[in-house]
Amino acid sequence: RPGPTSGVWDSNWDKREPRS
Amino acid sequence: DNLRAKATRHIFLIRHSQYNSESSLDKDRTLTELGREQAELTGCRLASLGVKFDKIVHSSMTRAIETTDIISKHLPGVNRISTDLLREGAPIEPDPPVSDWKPEARYYEDGARIEAAFRNFIHRADAKQEEDSYEIFVCHANVIRYIVCRALQFPPEGWLRMSLNNGSITHLVIRPSGRVALRTLGDSGFMPPDKITRT
Fold first, then answer.
1. Is A14 helix (H, G, I), strand (E, B) or coil?
2. Neighbour-count burial of B195, counting CB atoms closer than 10 A to its CB (0-12 exposed, 13-18 middle, 19+ buried)
3. Within 13 Å, how many C-alpha atoms sit on residue B94's CB side?
4. Which of B71, B51, B21 is CA-nearest to residue B131?
5. Is pLDDT at A20 greater than 70 in this prediction?
6. How far apart are CA A16 and CA B15, in angstroms?
7. Which residue of A10, A12, A20 is in closest CB contact with B116?
8. What average pLDDT does this structure show over B21-42?
9. What is the pLDDT of residues B50-88, one digit of tens each?
10. For chain A: N or C, fewer Cβ within 10 A?
11. Does A16 touch chain B (CB under 8 A)?
């Protein structure tokens, strides 16, 4: 399952994986 | 501080307009006459927003190319970029499931590709970007719905609970902090009701 779904905002959401 | 984003990105996700879906070959799935009218209306609307668009990225499928051709006439000088990443597909198995649509095998291939499209195109501005940017992405309903779920950090399995009209505008704002706001979802209020379709 991609991405967090806990309802807590992940401010580093776009920094976890290198862009393809 | 040199690595910190300064600018805001405005992402306009446009669903292609109405097309002939009878053929199985993509090249024959061209816009209908109404579809061409819808694309004109979307192009007018985007031009009337009074912002300077930086680029148009579009899916390489025929209906997205033809929609972009028409929108581009209203936005002279805006660079166009074609990408296979934004082609239509099955992003992730929807929840609740649908009985009449089970492309299981496609989730593996399409899902990875559409997730790659999300990671590639949807992110805060790079640190070197000084000015706010306005970018148009002409693509497809499933791709847009999945991107909206991912950008808002909503469960991506919920993508099929949303519905998008042809030629509609979805506007995401990504702040330098990484905060995301959905400013409009599938806006087609600029079209007369008798020209609105969802095919």
1. coil
2. middle
3. 19
4. B51
5. no
6. 28
7. A20
8. 96
9. 999 999 999 999 999 999 999 999 999 999 999 999 999
10. N
11. no
Q: Does A3 lie at the interface with B, CB-CB under 8 angstroms?
A: yes
Grade residue B131 by pLDDT with cuts at 50, 70 and 90. very high
- Among A4, A11, A14, select the one facing B123 at the smallest CB separation: A14
Residue A8: pLDDT band with limits 50, 70, 90: confident
pLDDT computed for residue B151 by the predictor: 98
Taking CA–CA distances from A11, the nearest residue in chain B reads B178
pLDDT band with cut points at 50, 70 and 90 for residue B106: confident
Which of A2, A3, A14 faces B124 most closely, judged by CB atoms?
A: A14
Residue B35 CB contacts under 8 Å (≥ 6 apart), including other chains: B16, B17, B18, B19, B63, B66, B67, B166, B167
Residues of B at the A interface (Cβ-Cβ below 8 Å)? 92, 115-116, 119-120, 122-124, 150, 153-157, 177-179
Report residue B186 as tokens: 């599938």
The distance of B52 to chain A (nearest Cα, Å) reads 25
CA dist B143 and B11 (Å) reads: 14
**CA-based nearest residue to B88, from B55, B111, B68:** B111
